[in-house]
Amino acid sequence: MRGSPLVRAFIAFLAILALGWPLWRLTAVDEATKTAAPGATTEAPAAAAAPVREIKLQVTFTTPPKSFSIRHLGREVWSDKNGKTEAEKTLQLPYPKEGVELQFAADFPEVAPLAAARLVLTDPQGDDHEKSCWGTRRIEEVVAFP
Which of 6, 35, 53, 80 could form a disulfide with 95 if both were Cys (CB 3.0 to 4.6 A apart)? Predict the structure, then answer.
């Protein structure tokens, strides 16, 4: 064997130490990030950036639900407790070019072992987008429409 194990260990230690400084710079918290208030953002809210448009939404169920609700950005935009298999409503929502996400929730009677809901959204350009949700007794899902 050539060389001393202590010398090799010392060289390895120096190599790790030399990589430590760049690694510390990459993982260090920036001072501007430290001083920013928690929860403060510099970008404008998506609702303010997108114009409010008229959107038609149709909901069809395989089994009449006890109740259902639809939320957009945490705000309830439609709820119904009539127990119909079909419902339709025109909503005024911000509709950006990327689309919209709706939180759908429905409660079904216990006699329904499996239930489905079909949501059809007609966007401001007149195109229909269809999504389906399946569940037992309760459906709770975020549905994204392009």
Answer: 53
